[in-house]
Design brief:
The complex is a heterodimer of chains A (675) and B (149). Chain A is an alpha/beta fold and 675 residues long. Helix content of chain A is 28%, strand content 26%. Chain A contains 19 helices and 36 strands. Classes of the chains: A alpha/beta (675), B alpha/beta (149). The interface between A and B is large, with 57 and 51 residues.
Amino acid sequence: MPQCPMHRSISSFILKDCIMAKIGVFICHCGENIGAKVDCTKLAATMGEHPGVAIAVDYKYFCSDPGQESVKRAIRENNLTGVVVAACSPRMHEATFRKACAEAGLNPYMCEIANIREQCSWVHNDPVMATEKAADITRSMVEKVKRNNNLQPIEVPVTRRALVIGGGIAGIQAALDIANAGQEVVLVEREPTLGGHMAQLSETFPTLDCSQCIMTPRMVEAAQHPKLRLLTYAEVVGVDGYIGNFHVKVKMKARYVDTESCTGCGDCITKCPNKKISSEFDCGLGKRPAIYTPFAQSVPNKPIIDKANCTYFKNGKCKVCVKVCQLNSINFEMQDEFIDLEIGAIVVATGFQVQDNSVYGEYGYGKYKDIINGLQFERLASASGPTSGKILRPSDGKEPETIVFIQCAGSRDPSKGVRYCSKICCMYTAKHAMLYAHKVHGGKSNIFYMDIRAAGKGYDEFTRRAIEDDEASYLRGRVSKVWEENGKLMVRGVDTLLGKPVVIAADMVVLATAMVSQPDAKDFAKTIGIGYDEYGFFNEAHLKLRPVESSTAGIFLAGACQSPKDIPDSVAQASASASKILALFSKEKLEREPVVATNNEATCAGCWGCVLACPYNAIDKKDILDRSGKVIKRVASVNPGLCQGCGTCVSFCRSNSLDLAGFTEKQIFAEVMGL
Amino acid sequence: MSEPFEPKIVAFVCTYCTYAGADLAGTSRLKYAPNVRIVRLPCTGRISPMFILKALQKGADGVLVSGCHPGDCHFTHGNYHARRRWTVFRALLEFTGIPLERVKFSWISAAEGGKFADFMNSVTEDIRKLGPFDQYQRLINETEAPATL
C-alpha cells in the first residue's frame, strides 16, 4: 500500500487526510515559460504515482478558458477532494483557479498553487535540477492540500464613510470625488487651512495657469459640500479596526478662536501688536502676526492663535484681539479636543516636505540671504506672496539681473541620502526661468542641470520654450561652490559639454531642492498601520498593479506621500483612490479571506501569550460558564472580524490550542514533510 | 571525482515580502541555485521553531527564515516577534548541538529580487561547505523502528 510520507504509523487523521484523498494535479506549461525548463510530462507522471493523487495532467495553458474547463471537468469526473495547480505564482492566478474550483462544486480553499514558474523555471538553468525542484514543490503542495479544510469567506459590514488625511490637492480631489458620488467623507488637515503645497505655488507647469486660481475654488467646494465634513487644524492620532470598520481618533488642536461665531472679519489680525513672526506659508520670506490666517484665501477663513508667539500666552498681558473682536470669539481657555470617528476606508494624502538645503554647506543656503529654494521662489513669483509677485532679492529688495538655478540640489545624490529623482524639479526650474524672463526683462538665467527629465504631456515642449523663447541658458554640470564677492554670489561649476569650469557672478541662486517625505511620516505610518520605504514614502501594495492601495486593506494612498509627484499625477492617484473606495462602498457587506486564527477552547490554558502577541487586539478573554452561571474557565477568543491572519499568536500558543485556518500546523508540517 | 554535494534547503518566508521578492527575482529572470524549497506563510510571526526542527529532521541540510524588514511588516510587528523568537531559539539550537550556521535569518523585501537571488546563492554555498546534515537522521535511525503502515 502506498505510504504517506507524513505518517510513520496509523493515526486518526490518516484515513481522511490520505487514504480518502483524491487530489488532482494540473501542471501548466505556461507556453514555453515553464515547459522549456521543467519536463512537465515527466512531472505529471511522477505526481500521478504519488499517494492520494487521483489524476495528474499537464497542459499548455491552464489559465485559458479550455484549461480551466478541463480542471472543472476533472473535478466533477473524479470527485476530487483537492486541487493543486503547478503553474505561476499564487499571486497571479490563485483567485482564477479557486473560482474555477468553486464553479465545479469544490470548496475554493481546497485549491493550492505550486509556484513552479517564478520560483523555479524562470530562475534555474539546469532542466534536471529544475524538474526535480518542481516535483518537490508540487509534492509538498499535494501534501498540504490533503489537509486543507473547507473554509467560508468571512462577511463583514461596511461603514460607508471615508476618511481623507491631508488637505492638499490630492486629499481635496479624493474627498470631493467620494462626496460627489454621494458618500460621506471626513477630510482632516493638520494645518489651519486646506491647500497644502499647491496653494503656495505661483504658476503651474506646463500651462502657466495660476495655481491659486485653480486651487481655491476646489478648496471652497470642499468646505461647502454637504457630504463633506472638514476638520482643519486636526491630526489623526489613532487608527484601530480593519477594512470597512476603522475606529479613528482625531485630535482637534486648540485654535483659541471659536470658529462657529467667528466671521473671519480680520480685525484681530490687523490689530495684533506682534507682527514680526516669520510666515510658514511664505517660507520665511514674509511676516505674519500671532493671530493669523496662513493666506488670504484660507479655507476656513478663520484665524488661529500661534500659542508659542502670542504675547498673552508668553506674558499674561495683551488681549488686544479679545478687545477688538465684537463677537467674543477669542477663547484663551480652549483645550485640545479628541473626537472618535467610525470609518470604512481611508485615503492617506499627507504630502511631502522640501529637503533642508543646509545639507549642502558648499552652496551656502542659510548663510547668504539671496540663496533660496524652489518653494521660496514660488512665493516670490506668486501674486499673493511677500513681494506681490515681483522677483526681488530677499537681502536688499533689488531686482536680480542674473539668477543661477541649480537642479538636483539634493535629488539623485546618494551622499545626501536621496538616491531618487524628485521628478518635478526639471519642470519647475524651467518654469522659474520663464517666469523670471517674463517679470524681469533682460534678466539672465543660468541653469545647471544633470539631465532634463521632462516626460509628460506638453512637458518637453515646455522646457524647449524656456530654452528657445525665454533664453534660459542650460549648462550641463554640477556646481561645486557658491560664495559672496563684492555683493555678488559667485557660482563655480562645470560645463561638461564644453569641458570647462565656469564661474558665474549672480544676484540670486535658486536651489531645486529634493522632495522628501514628511519628517514624521514613519511614525504616522506606524500609527495607521501601513508600510513605508527607506525614505519614508508610503509603500503601495504593488508598484505596478496596485499603485494606489497601501499594504493594509482599506487604506489607500494619494499624492506625494507615496513618491515625488506633480499635480496631474497626484490628482490622478487621488481619483483612483476615490474610485477604489466607491467600489468598496458599493456593497452592503465585504467578503474577506477566511485566513483567521481559531482557538480550541478545550485545551486553551488561558496564559494570554496570544493576547500580548496579537498586533490587532483581536483576541479577547472569554468566560466559560457552567450551568449555574459560575465561571469555570477563562479562555482566549479570536474575533474573526479583527483577525488579519498573520498567525503570530499560533506560534506563541503554549498549549497548541490556536491554529490558523489555511496555514494550520498540520498543513505546514505536511508541506515540510512533502519536500 | 565525485559529484559536488547538492544541499537541500528549506526556506520559511512570509508571503508579503520575501515570497514577493522571490517572485520578483523570477519575473526579473535572475538565476540562482536551485537548492532552496520555499514554504509560504502569511508572516514570519507564524513560524514556529518546530517547523525549523521538522525540516532538519526531514533531511534538510539547512533552513532559512526570511521576512519583511523591521518596521515594514504587513502585520505591523509579526517580524519583531519572529526576531525575538529566533534569538531564544538560537540558544536551544546550540543546546541540542545543531550548528547555528545551518539556520539563516534574513530580511528581504518585495522589492529586493536581486538580494533574494544573491542570498539564495550565498546560503547554498555556505551549506554546501558545511556538508550534509546527517546527525539528526542518525539519531532517528538509532531510536525509532522503521515505519510501517
